[in-house]
Amino acid sequence: MQLIVSQKDRLELGSYSEQPNGECMVGKDVFKHAAPDLDLSVIVPCYNVERYVAQCLDSLLCQQTQYAFEVIAVNDGATDGTGRILDEYASRFDTLHVINRENGGLAAARNTGIREARGRYLTFVDSDDYVSDGFIESAMATAIRENADVVATGQISFDESREYKKLMPHDDHDRSVLTGTAWGKMFKRELLARVVFPEGYWFEDTPLRHLIYPRIDRYASVCDCSYMYRHNLQGINLSSKGKPKALDTVYITDLVFRHVEKIAPQGYLDGSVFRAVACNQFYLNQCRIEGLPKACRKLVFRIQSDFYHTHLKSNGPSTPVNSPLYVTAMSLRSFTLAKISVKAAFLNRAVKVLGRLFLVVKKHNS
């Protein structure tokens, strides 16, 4: 199963930005240690985070828990004081293991940590984020009790001045917190044995939604907000607009679709869940490339519409999607409707931002 079927289309997309060479699946088990001897491995990729990494490490290394865990900090060729801070912490904490490598990007750093992991479960923490007290204890207790494949925690997004968004599970099995990001979750080791983060790509978390989540049998959530996510204005989703490399979102979708039929449960590709997941991915792709030339955006829309008509249009009862209008646009092959759906997304986001600013000003003036 491929998204980009035509070689002509692939060459035309490549004229805007070439597809990276990274893969999302490997032929054999990636783990260096054949059998786990710890409960949890916490993987922390680090690159030029001297301002934040101490807070991140303090929040992890001082966790009070009955579970045996390790923190694997991967120094991804940092050029500031990050390496010095990591070495200083490693001299004080036996549970911290520092791996130094040449700069290869977030995906490469995560993959390095995965290979060295000794835990039954793996979790990822970005080095400019931190976790609250009890993060490991509560999530691991839930994982063991439920024999869960994945456990997700609630999250709080914040910037330098304030908290502004909470994502709290409604119950112990609320899948709304099963977002497309690697952080804020604990994964059973076996799920990551052959799936890797694609190196050289932006949007490297994409395989989670397509290659990990369909294989989950048992899922649980922790009903508190224990992962603290630092809102980064330089993050890919915010800084990629208008850059040709934003086409990675299309390339990485093509990459995971080439593998999904190999590992997805029987019947998944013919069901409404895959239809919804794919349609949501296509809508996200269209939003991410909004700043690129019209001819490029139109080409991507046509490629995605072709896939929709070939593989998705007749996939049973409808599962709710993020943008019914975009699905209608693909069904009618109407690029005009697609543009309207994308504009609606940006307008909705702008309204939310203005709402938050209004609350800040109101609070300041009260």
TrEMBL record:
<keyword id="KW-0808">Transferase</keyword>
<protein>
    <submittedName>
        <fullName>Glycosyltransferase</fullName>
    </submittedName>
</protein>
<dbReference type="InterPro" id="IPR001173">
    <property type="entry name" value="Glyco_trans_2-like"/>
</dbReference>
<dbReference type="GO" id="GO:0016758">
    <property type="term" value="F:hexosyltransferase activity"/>
</dbReference>
<dbReference type="InterPro" id="IPR029044">
    <property type="entry name" value="Nucleotide-diphossugar_trans"/>
</dbReference>
<feature type="domain" description="Glycosyltransferase 2-like">
    <location>
        <begin position="41"/>
        <end position="167"/>
    </location>
</feature>
<dbReference type="Pfam" id="PF00535">
    <property type="entry name" value="Glycos_transf_2"/>
</dbReference>
